[in-house]
Amino acid sequence: MALYQAILELADDNLVLGHRVSEWCGHAPLLEEDLAMPNMALDLIGTARTLYDYAGKLEGKGQSEDDMAYLRDEREYRNCLLVERRNDDFAHTMLRQLYFAAFMKPFWDAAANSSDEVIRGVAGKAVKEMAYHIRHAGEWVIRLGDGTEESAARMKDAVQALAMYVDELFVSSAAAAEAEAAGILPKRADMRPAFDAVINHIFAEAMLTTPEVAYPQTGGRDGLHGEDLGHMLSVMQALYRAHPGASW
Amino acid sequence: MYSQGLIGADGSTDESQDFLDRFQARIDAEEKIEPTDAMPEGYRRTLVRQIGQHAHSEIVGMLPEGNWITRAPTLRRKAALLAKVQDEGGHGLYLYSAAETLGVSREEMTEELHSGKAKYSSIFNYPTLSWADIGTIGWLVDGAAIMNQIPLCRCSFGPYARAMIRVCKEESFHQRQGYEIVMTLARGTPEQKAMAQDSLNRWWWPALMMFGPHDADSEHSDQSMKWKIKRFSNDELRQKFIDATVPQAEFLGLTVPDADCKWNEEKGGYDHGPIDWSEFWRVVKGGGVMNRDRIRDRKAAWEKGEWVRDAALAHAEKRRARKMAAE
Ligand SMILES: [Fe+2]
Ligand SMILES: [Fe+2]
After folding, report:
1. What's the pLDDT at A121?
2. Containing domain of residue B274, as a range?
3. Which residues contact A233 (CB under 8 A, 6 or more apart)?
4. Which domain holds residue A25?
5. Of A27, A31, A239, which has the smallest distance from its Cβ to B92's Cβ?
6. Chain B residues with CB inside 8 Å of A22's CB?
7. In sequence order, what are the beta bridge partners of A239?
8. Among candidates B248, B232, B240, B310, which has minimal Cα distance to B270?
9. What is residue B3's predicted lDDT score, i.e. its pLDDT?
């Protein structure tokens, strides 16, 4: 059950962020980004699907990937708080993406040595995708941080708003800790040096600094979320829930 | 996705008869015209207009389908829809590039879209009101687009023809995927089947209108046909579409909303009832339910993104300056 829970956390992170990114589709600041956003969303949702499918099998109650994505409420979602933050402006969206990918890239790198075959499979694909997300989002963070006065100010605002959600990435829930001890998932805390190296490098070029965070925000792994997640889920789940048992 | 018969193209041109004859001879010999070749002004203008309208249609077409990305009923459908909408954006990008070879920039074309000067396919001024509309758009709208675009793969203007070859492959994938969505609904619960029928009822006539006015009322077709920008008349393409689509609807157990739609043995095709052209012109001229919202949303994305584009330019400029200073 612990592994099921740990996999669910990972799947939720990927689905929630993928959904958030997909909200940009058709509304991006330039056409090239209208193509890049769905690309990133597809990577994340693809990873989520594989993980939900696996979690369903681990649980053994016959839940499909869709049952898990569409039938759980806010309190049952186990994603970290960073990924549920609303898109706000393009600076917030790109920074959120960078933070997440800068964590997940070394995570999947290490997961290539997992004792679990499914995790190794996911890791092999996801690590390349996360490298691309770091590149894409990182380039934007640099452009915006070192662009115009307005973009620099917006980028700084984004850092102020999101830095407090970073620490939670490195905290393992009890379920994750069990999976880590079993050699199935890499230890979250171990990702810190790789994460810091990427962020420091990009922030230096973007003329940004990491602020002191007085009160790091956590709670997502216990299903304690902000208010935005419920609205996201109600949009996402409405149709599936309106037709119980239907095939689509 | 592609618009119907071009709206309001002006093919008039004032080159010497000798020049026009030589140009026509190249067209008649099925030579491809390339961007750097000499061409009549009317030919260039018609193409800029048509390719621009086509590009805008792809871009605006992202909105009605994007409307269901966040609500797609399964993760598999969500991923497929994301990929489709992304394809449409790619078509837009590709077509803007083709138009740019004729000396008009993407920014200029975008401004014309936002000011209402440039048109886009009127089909996208209809709303997507249920999930079934995502299937129906793929089936009917991408299906109609294919009918229009396959002949464009042989268009006399090289960059447009080449763009169409790539685009057509993706459109036919969209069409099959859309049909499969509708099939799943038609074989689903009674509510799902009703959803599919309602969607077909709403999109059938607008889809037929995508091919443009009847040949007898189509102003600009002759010159476009002569220049081989266009190869089939509006009515010919519409007939092909109906003949291909009606049996597909029957196969699904759905009914096209036209009591006069019957197989005509003599002509070897389906007859159809009268098309309400006043509805067509109302929507083309801005009176559809979504016209204003579509432009509002495109403008909002563009205006809200201005600071991002400015920052990208400013950053590139700084980089260049630093590199110069370092050398
Ligand atoms: Fe398209
Ligand atoms: Fe398409």
Report:
1. 98
2. 19-326
3. A73, A74, A77
4. 2-242
5. A31
6. 69-70, 78, 82
7. none
8. B240
9. 45
Chain B positions touching A45 (Cβ under 8 A) are 75, 78-79, 82
> Does A248 map to a domain?
no
Does B282 map to a domain? yes
Residue B11 in any domain: the answer is no
B39-80 pLDDT, tens digit per residue, is 999 999 999 999 999 999 999 999 999 999 999 999 999 999
Residues 6+ apart with CB under 8 A from B160: B47, B50, B51, B98, B152, B229
Q: Which residues of B touch A39 (CB under 8 A)?
A: 86
Percent of chain B with pLDDT over 70: 95
Residue of A nearest to B315 (CA): A147
Hey, which residues 213-242 in chain B have their CB within 8 Å of chain A? Answer: none
Tell me the per-residue pLDDT of B146-198, one tens digit each, with 9 for 90 and over. Answer: 999 999 999 999 999 999 999 999 999 999 999 999 999 999 999 999 999 99
Q: What pLDDT is recorded for position B2?
A: 45
ipTM for the predicted complex comes to 0.97
Answer yes or no: is A227 within a domain.
Answer: yes
- Total domains in chain B come to 1
Given a cut of 80, whether residue B8 has pLDDT beyond it is: no
Q: Residue B3 domain-assigned? A: no
- In this structure, what CATH number is given to the domain that contains residue A154? 1.20.1260.10
- Give the amino acid at A30: L
CA of A223 to the centre of ligand 2 (A): 39
Asked if the structure places residue A247 within a domain, the reply is: no
Q: Which residues contact A115 (CB under 8 A, 6 or more apart)?
A: A182, A183, A184
Domain-embedded: residue A141: yes
Q: Which of A28, A45, A148 lies nearest to residue B75, judging by beta carbons?
A: A45
Contact B308 A30 (CB under 8 A): yes
pTM for this one? 0.95
Which CATH number covers residue B199?
A: 1.20.1260.10
Instruction: Report how many domains make up chain A.
Output: 1
Structural contact between residues B199 and B133, judged by C-beta atoms closer than 8 angstroms? yes
Beta strands in chain B (DSSP E): 262-264, 269-271
pLDDT-derived band at B15, boundaries 50, 70, 90 = confident
Tell me if B1 is assigned to some domain: no
| Residues pairing with B270 in the sheet | B263
Q: Residue B99 above 50 pLDDT?
A: yes
